[in-house]
Amino acid sequence: MNLLTAQAPGRVPRSGKGLALGIWRFMLVALVLALSIGFTQVAVAQADPDREMTTAAPGITAEQWRQVRSGETGPNYRDSRFDSNYSLINSSGETWREIRNRWVSPFGLIAVFGMAALIALFYFIVGRKELEAPRTGRLLLRWTLMKRALHWTVATLFIILALTGMTLLFGKFVFRPLFGDGIWAWMIAATKVLHNYLGPIFGILLVILLVSLIKENIPKKHDWVWFKKGGGMIGKKHVDAGFANGGEKAWYWILATVGILVIASGFVLDFPNFNQSRDTMQWANIIHAVGALGLTAISLGHIYIGTLGTEGALEGMTTGYVDETWAKEHHNLWYDEVKDQTLSEEEVAARKSSGGSSEPSATRTS
Amino acid sequence: MAQMKFMCDAERCIECNGCVTACKNANDVEWGIQRRRVVTLNDGEANEMSISVACMHCDDAPCMAVCPTDCFYKTDDGIVLHDKDLCIGCGYCLYACPFGAPQFPQQDAFGERGKMDKCTFCAGGPAESKEEEYEKYGSNRIAEGKLPLCAEMCSTKALLAGDAQDVADIFRQRVVHRGHKDGAWSNNPQASADNLAYDAAHKG
Ligand code: HEM
Ligand code: SF4
Ligand code: SF4
Fold it and tell me: Considering CB atoms only, which of B68, B95, B187 is closest to A61?
């Protein structure tokens, strides 16, 4: 339009040629007018959100939201981070957080401290299980030096792992306010290093221990009766037991199942160099924490029975030898098999000074 | 008090990675770590869209909730920062974070990852001196009254940073002018509860 009006002044049509030019000029103006009306109409249309919605490039569709939530990446997914294998949104992260913080953490604490409270209650009400008959002074070899060493190494590592593991889960609520950041920083760093380096050693040793004890821990019919009679823990009921009683076998099989699960998940957590996905780590962490806290709770029972709870049990695992009376009362079927192998205290002392590890084992499979 | 937020307008982001580079430059980030990344969905298809992602400085931050050392804290401006002296590199924050923001200089056997690093909203972190702060966390532009460099440098102004209310206002205005009812972030069934963009689009 401006172009045309700029041309117009001072130009007057003079001839037929001029007339033709005038018609051309009119048509041009009409065309421009028509076009500009068209343009205006487009502009009006642009202001209408509903029409715009139908013509614009689509926004994010429900399908894309589904894609993002499910974490699937697909062949046309790009991430500019050089080694990233992450989806856009890690939607399982919040689930993991909820499971860990809302369920595993409080209920784990309840399991461990609840167990400790129950045991304390049991001790005060029922008390220690003493030997009924006097000791004979004749001893039986129960644990060879090799097995004792293995047991105490595994036990020590277990306690360290349980304490450091629980510090990872609960330490921030207790030690940070208690000690302040300086000590807490040092403490939690040491905790992680201990846990992550001792864990695999524990794992390997526990497997060796389990293999070396499997013969004594095959379940038998009398173990079932042992359980039905409550292991003879309360009162003076007589219960049959071989080298390992029903309760010990149960602890063995808990370690052989849950323990292996804890070790396996621990290895997954401990070796991120294999590029496990975040989801794998989340599952491994939940399995690991639930299993480990369960084991910790149950281990308190094992520790109680092996020390405070039963007269004469601890000496078996420290010296290797148990009294004949103890064997008769707690493991009668084993006693029946090995009663001809009793030794006097002097004989035991002599054996030990001549190198204890070559002792013939008095353990049997029953 | 301000509540600092990022927001990326997916209708504007052209996947130029300027924000990624700006961040690297502003914070002198360690080799191998990239605090910001650009994700493109359906690259080359009609519904292609890109978005720049880093730590979103969550209100109820999952990283904070799961950290065994409790090394995260929130500044008065709602920025989520962490103390590298306390971090043990366990990786939990990464497992929990919705945006894959926490990163580690290494990823070795026995869970050896080094200290976690993530976007600080250009607000530095806890340190004795300015030099130490820069060394550990990068620049503290917030202390200088500036916004994060990634958003400042964004060529299309797709990436916005600032107080949640201001960001929402800008985005709402855009949405209105665009004529799109839902703006860039439409059709999210979850949005009404927690999505800034969705709220922005619907308040206007
Ligand atoms: C092979 C054996 C084990 C390995 C390799 C292992 C490894 C790990 C790893 C890598 C973590 C993550 C923490 C971090 O990276 O800083 C962890 C956490 C933990 N571990 Fe173990 N562990 C083992 C055995 C045990 C045992 C025997 C217990 C307890 C009796 C235990 C209790 C825990 C607990 C409670 C946590 C914390 C879970 C949480 O914070 O959510 N672990 N373990
Ligand atoms: S690191 Fe992840 S979880 Fe933590 S505030 Fe940033 S975006 Fe949220
Ligand atoms: S890696 Fe560091 S910041 Fe992340 S959860 Fe572990 S200790 Fe906390």
Answer: B187
Chain centroid to Cα B74, Å, comes to 14
Tell me the chain A residues in contact with residue B126 when contact means C-beta distances shorter than 8 Å: none
> Is it the case that residue A24 has pLDDT exceeding 50?
yes
Ligand 3 mean position, distance from CA A120 (Å): 36
Ligand 2 centroid to B118 CA: how many Å? 9
How many whole angstroms from B92 Cα to the centroid of ligand 3? 6
Beta-carbon count within 10 A of A117 CB: 11
DSSP line for B130-178: HHHHHHHH--BTTTTT---HHHHH-TTS-EEEEEHHHHHHHHHHHHHHH
Given a cut of 90, whether residue B155 has pLDDT beyond it is yes
Residues A280 and A170 in one domain: yes
A137: confidence class by pLDDT, cuts 50, 70, 90: very high
In CATH, what number is assigned to the domain containing residue A149? 1.20.950.20
Enter the DSSP assignment of B103.
B
On the question of pLDDT at B191 being above 50, the answer is no
Residues A68, A133 share a domain: no
Alpha-carbon distance of A203 to A261, in angstroms, equals 10
Q: Are residues A171 and A294 in the same domain?
A: yes
Judge: A185–B178 Cβ closer than 8 Å, yes or no.
no
In SS3 terms, B172-192 reads as: HHHHHHHCCCCCCCCCCCCHH
Domain-terminating residue out of A89, A111, A140:
A89
Q: For residue range A292-325, list pLDDT tens digits in order.
A: 999 999 999 999 999 999 999 999 999 999 999 9
Q: Which of B56, B81, B92 should be mutated for ligand 2, with most atoms under 8 A from CB?
A: B56
Q: Which residues of B touch A270 (CB under 8 A)?
A: 109-111
Domains: count for chain A: 3
Closest CB to A192 among B20, B32, B90: B90
- Please state the atom number of ligand 3 nearest to the C-alpha of residue B63: 5
pLDDT number for residue A50: 61
pLDDT digits (tens, 9 = 90+) for A178-228: 999 999 999 999 999 999 999 999 999 999 999 999 999 999 999 998 998
**Architecture, CATH, for domain B4-203:** 2-Layer Sandwich (3.30)
**Residue A305 is assigned to a structural domain of this protein:** yes
Complex ipTM: 0.89
pTM of the model: 0.85
